[in-house]
Design brief:
CATH class of one domain: Alpha Beta
Strand order of the largest sheet: 5-6-4-7-3-8-9-10
Protein name: ATPase
Number of helices: 16
Organism: Mycolicibacterium tokaiense
GO molecular function: ATP binding; ATP hydrolysis activity
Shape: extended
CATH architecture of one domain: 3-Layer(aba) Sandwich
CATH topology of one domain: Rossmann fold
Distance between the termini: 116 Å
Structural class: alpha/beta
Order of helices and strands: HEEHHHEHEHHEEHHEHEHHEHEHHH
Strand content: 5-15%
Radius of gyration: 52 Å
Pfam families: CbiA
Number of strands: 10
CATH superfamily of one domain: P-loop containing nucleotide triphosphate hydrolases
Length: 445
């Protein structure tokens, strides 16, 4: 056989392939599987073979469209899946089936009944930011020199005055303590605070403690302080201040509907040099005995409108009709005892009676005052008396004997001894320590 030139043989094979339509699929595997017949391609597209999917590459040149067919490319299906169905678009009338229902998630989501649902969180109140100093290096503390408070007593005060106020060695420890007590007594107070002064035994200085405590609070604070005489047995509270009016608590109740301002109520009270005002009781025992719980409640309702502190000087009879209202309205209790044995026993019996009649909270927050109505006796151990009341009351304070208080006349704080004034300031500070704390969120708003 004569060998034909390679170029001529390839040319005749290329011409033959251009005139013949592809009619078979070639096997992809190298094992020489038998070719399968396939239908003739329609005239709507041109066969395009993708290298790597099993169809033999005829030449390295790009495929050319066959004669008589439109030039539209289509990727051939992989020969590795001979029976794979060809995807066809769904008909227009076909509707997809609904998805299967979701499984109930009982573990992740649970329905909480309304009664068991947690309460919603309270809204956070608006709290404006505290303004900062725009120029810290120009603040008062950085520009002004620190000035020590001048001494108020002792040799320090004498040296300060003798040097023409040029030598200031500062305050003593006692002066600093006094200044702190005054600051404590001046704590802010929201609303009206009611103080009841009680004792079962007469002659222990209950009325004197009411007047001196009220005078001290009025002299230290800037708000109004009034003391009410609720003693049905001809009380003497009005004798502790200069008498300015003959009006009594009965006149106040009679004219309560016409009192609209502080100047109106001022006509029914007498005021001392310390700014303490006193509302007197009736001098006729028959009339004062008729002062009932309702009368006291009405009186207190009028006073609360114009005064920040109301002190009530109670009688010795705890079963008096007005005592129920006094104890029900009181914010704190001051129990007065003398330094004697019978005075301490009477004060302790007062606490027992209050405990037995449902006033345990008043007893726990009460203040015991041991008042020396006469010079101290060396036979009575006052410290044991203090220890006894310390276990039952919130605080215990001692008021020493003072000749000015023994007079029984009008009280002038400037005439008291220094230790007596200091003891009264301590008592006022302890009382103020029980004031309700103001709501700072409401103040910021």
């Amino acid at each position: 056989m004569t060998d034909e030139p390679t170029e001529g043989r390839h040319g005749r094979e290329s011409s033959r392939r251009e005139n013949e339509a592809p009619t078979t699929w070639f096997a992809e595997q190298s094992g020489g599987e038998q070719a399968q017949e396939r239908p003739e391609p329609s005239s709507d597209y041109t066969e395009f073979h993708t290298p790597g999917y099993g169809t033999p590459a005829i030449s390295d040149s790009p495929p050319r469209p066959l004669t008589g067919f439109r030039s539209e490319r289509r990727f051939s299906e992989p020969t590795g899946l001979p029976n794979a169905p060809r995807w066809n678009p769904p008909p227009p009338e076909w509707n997809p089936p609904p998805p299967p229902p979701a499984e109930p998630q009982t573990e992740q989501f649970r329905v909480i009944p309304a009664d068991a649902a947690p309460e919603p969180a309270l809204p956070v109140p608006y709290r404006p930011e505290i303004a900062q100093t725009p120029y810290p290096d120009l603040s008062t503390s950085s520009l002004l020199r620190e000035v020590k408070p001048p001494p108020s007593s002792g040799w320090r005060r004498l040296l300060y005055v003798a040097s023409g106020k040029l030598i200031n060695v500062g305050e003593s420890a006692k002066d600093i303590h006094h200044r702190n007590l005054v600051a404590q007594a001046n704590q802010p107070l929201a609303g009206c605070y009611r103080i009841a002064v009680v004792s079962l035994k007469g002659g222990v200085g209950k009325t004197t403690i009411t007047a001196t405590l009220g005078s001290t609070l009025a002299s230290l604070r800037g708000d109004r302080v009034v003391a009410v005489d609720a003693n049905p047995d001809r009380g003497t509270l009005s004798q502790k201040v200069p008498l300015e009016t003959q009006a009594t608590v009965r006149h106040l109740l009679r004219d309560a509907g016409r009192i609209q301002s502080y100047s109106d109520i001022r006509g029914y009270t007498s005021q001392g040099p310390s700014r303490l005002e006193v509302l007197a009781s009736e001098t006729d025992p028959a009339v004062s005995e008729a002062f009932s719980a309702d009368d006291y409640a009405r009186t207190l309702a009028v006073l609360e409108r114009f005064y920040s502190l109301v002190l009530t000087d109670c009688g010795t009879g705890l079963m008096h009709s007005a005592m129920a209202a006094v104890l029900a309205k009181a914010d704190t209790l001051v129990v007065v005892s003398s330094g004697s044995v019978d005075g301490a026993r009477s004060a302790s019996a007062t606490l027992d009676w209050l405990d037995a009649h449902g006033h345990q909270e008043l007893v726990r927050n009460s203040i015991a005052v041991i008042n020396a109505v006469r010079p101290r006796s060396a036979k009575v151990d006052i410290q044991k008396v203090v220890d006894h009341f310390s276990r039952r009351c919130r605080a215990v304070r001692l008021v020493p004997f003072d000749p000015h208080l023994e007079e029984g006349a009008e009280i002038d704080l400037t005439r008291l001894r220094r230790d007596t004034r200091e003891a009264l300031v301590e008592l006022a500070a302890v009382v103020a320590d029980g004031f309700p704390k103001p709501n700072r969120d409401a103040m910021n708003w």
